Model the fold of this input.
Amino acid sequence: MLLLLLIVLAAFSPLTVLNALAWSDTKNRAVNNLSYGSEARQKLDIYMPVNSELPPDVVVFFYGGNWNSGSRKRYGFVGKALATRGIMTVVADYRLSPHVAYPAFVEDAAQAVAWTLKHIDEYGGNAKKVFVAGYSAGAYNAAMVALDPRWLAKHGVSPAALQGWIGIAGPYDFLPITTESTKPAFLYPDTPVDSQPVRHVSAKSPPALLITGTADKVVDPARNSQALAAHLRAVNVMVQYIGLDGIGHSLPVGAFAPLLRSYFPVLDEVSGFVLRTSAGRSGVY
Done:
């Protein structure tokens, strides 16, 4: 079954297939096309768990795409998956290169998170239990919001308002930039050194869950997720690192979809981290 799924994902648009697989995630409802800013791409969708007795925990999720492509509509399967686990999920768009460059997409991510902190209670979510998460380029956005207080400060809030953050196959230390298609997004070779999340680790950083495939050829897991985990541990920040053995760059996010999730425990790990951390039951990993 797994081999067949991987063949189908290779033959067709992977995100289209993953969203199609999510038809069975019925324990959610959605509110779409909400604006968190005035720009056309400053929109978000909210996926809500049904039958929640208490205001649920909230995850704000940012997708990948090398900061030059992507759409929140193609990542609805992530929102649906987390909602089935009782976690309200905000999936947000952000402005992309070449129309903008760093730090515009980080500013958008911070604005979406700040909007969530200020407004999610209007939709039934728990504004005191908000996490930020992302995959690939979106994990970078999430890391910068969680680790570098400059961005949320523009909206009168701080990373201290976050319960934690989740990075999936994220780039956190990638200078000098060698991928040609990434260079415009970061004004290379004039990329600011402080654009790198690893430079903003401090003892005040929120708890983190870092997931990556050990065979990722797009974002080096050793230099990025493993090294960032080591930096966080060095300042006594709670961090959990999970390396999925033999897995590449795409499957860690694809694993949110039904059928795939039974082979790769990403949804279990993310939802477990959120619920444990918000409940204050986490220990030192």
